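Thread: Modeling a multi-component assembly for a lab meeting

Hi all, long-time lurker, first post. My supervisor asked me to bring a structural picture of a complex we are working on to next week's group meeting, and I have zero experience with this. I have the sequence lines for every component (809 residues in total). Could someone generate the structure of the whole assembly? Inputs are pasted exactly as I received them:
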Amino acid sequence: MSEKFVVCNSDKCLGCGICEFVCSATKDKSLNPSFSRIRQVNFEPIGSMAIACLLCEEPSCVAVCSRDALLKDEKGVIRVDEYKCNGCGWCIRACEFGAITLHPTKKAVMTCDLCDGDPECVKHCPFEDALTYATIEEVAHKLRKEAVDNMLRVIKAGAKSSS
Amino acid sequence: MFGYMGKILRINLTKGKITEEPLNENVARKFIGGRGLGAHILFNELKPGINPLGPENKLVVATGVITGIPFPGNSGLNVMAKSPLTGIWGEATAKGFFGPELKATGYDAIIIEGKAETPVYLWIHDSEAEIKDASRLWGKPTREVQKIIKAELKDDRVQVGCIGIAGENLVRFANIMFGFNHFAGRTGMGAVMGSKNLKAIAVRGTGRARYAHEEKLVDLLIEKLISKEALSGPYFPDGLFKYGSLADLGYWQETGRLPTMNFRKSLFPGYENLTAETLTSSPYIIRHNTCPHCTVGCNRITKANAPYKLDPEYATPEYESTAALSTLCMNDNLVATLKAIELCNKYGMDTMSTGVTIAFAMECYEKGKITKKDTDGLDLTWGNHEAIVQLVEQIARKQGIGNLLAEGSRKAAEKLGGGAEEFAMHVKGMEFPLHDARGLKGHGLGIATSNRGACHLQVETDDMFEGQLAPDIGIDEKTFPKEHRDRLYAGPEKVKIVKIIGDLFATFDSLVICKWTVYPCGGYKTSTLVDVVATATGWDFTVDELMKTGERIINLCRAFNAREGITRKDDKLPKRFSEPLPEGPYKGEAFPEDVFERMLSQLYKLRGWDEKTGIPTRKKLEELELRYVADNLETLGIISSPKRKR
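Re: Modeling a multi-component assembly
Sure thing. I ran the full set together rather than chain by chain. Output:
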């Protein structure tokens, strides 16, 4: 998985839903969030998270489609052929993350296409670091950095208080 | 009709009858929803003099014409009824996820009448409504009620507005929790629900309003409202997100206007324990909380284990709540304050009225009006945080001295007598907000003249306009030079600002918009908001029409209050504010009664109200297309008919 995708940090996401609006607005010029390819889930009071396509290495959605309507392109993005798709919903059921949804007016499913490499949801997310466009390796690197930063802070604070 | 759903739901709990009414197009435009729509309904349907806790009172829950359009601050609903706390116009707004969800059910407003025989809740979903049994929910705390209902309806996307035990027990300042810790806090709307045996309202909808120019609206929102630059005034982007409204606490201390010891003092020695900086760097904050489509995220959720165990389901501090339950009662214990807030939220009780009423009790205790005998041994010495937490419990349960305090500070003072009235910090029966009127002359006038009693959210001027202007609503450098915008200035120009902001804020509670996100407070411009209304509805809507609408709504609520006996004598500040501040940068500053009365006369004149009575004149009401209101007041003998003119 060396491709970049839309990653949500549940520590920073507040569940405001601006990503859903921006996606619906960009893709369908609609105010209705059910047109969104990224969907947000709130678990009060613990946290919130937005989920978009994770660009699986071996996508089960593609594998289960009986009409070859879903294909993974060279950048890892799942492309939906709206003429082939009849909205049967097998792919929706196959995706463990709920990242595919049925388009409210077309008889076809929809999933995140990363806005050709410049995701609008990431650009408009109001909360710093809640949504990022990154590869999974970049995400891991960031997590490692945060962990080390935290550890160093604790050590320094300890050194200070004992001196 | 664009923007609105076009329907109102009416539920009669006595008869168990549910009916649907179309929203009249003329009313829809004249009142723009929320407070305006509710005031129109309640003025027409409530007889003056009714018992607010009787079945004859009605509760209106209304959203606004643009509710449901995704942009920061636009997620409100307004709850209205005759208030059991004040006996006059009662209303409270709540933000969060409930308002848009209610609208998505297909209704712009619901009117709840009568009284159910046994506890019930309402279940409204996609143009259908049911009255359901709530006997197993009675006695349960707010968040638990929400969870049980969601489980019962097998849908976690249901939004629930509900009362806690304070509402059931008819505590006069009980509130309603909508969704996760958003409250219709003031004027006791929760007690009205309780009096109707209505425990909760659950909503879930998939409907959408139609808009005149949806694609244009989408572009407008992306360009002007949800961009990070949209909210770039002095309070943004960092202020409110980083510190929340609690940042005010440090600010009021620094500027010597922090309400302390029931407004007797204006500096609090232990304030450093309570500031936003202290809370932010403490281990207590677990995360921020937000309203839908808001880029601010001002709310925060806290947790602690000692000295009190805090439940993150409820412990959500902000400035008014925190100051009311800490500095005002001389309590410098942060976790105890958070605990008191948590309990208020759990039991469904207005944190502000609770705190101010406890401060009142502490002063009565100091002065010997309340003794240990009255409190069953509870020591109400200033700053005793254990007593504060205990009193919150007792008020919600109406136990011991809590039974007296649950009546609110005005009624409690009347019952105690012997001068206790002087310690009750209220206007028209509602407890004072945590803003010292001596150091905020315009705001003070606004609080004294607000239609729902002492409310800080009907007018804000003073500090706000010292550093910024709002030319699109006529507050520019030329009309209002710097010296007239000074916080202590009490001249006629300040009164003009009070009128302008009063009219404007009335529209915010009607649309129903969060006041923090709109221009005078540093957010997007009022003209942008007007663009949204015009684009959504197709109306030729202008800033002038918005302001006139606000004035119409203010006058309608004032007429409602006039029928309940409110006149000039009720537009006053507690006596304490005419005494000088004892300390700090503004030491010696007072709000003398003659200065106040002069400002009041000027405001009445600007508003076109009778200078002696403070009641709107027929001329003003007719100018605002409120002839039916003038006719009604005349029939009741509240205003004289033109023929019998003196």
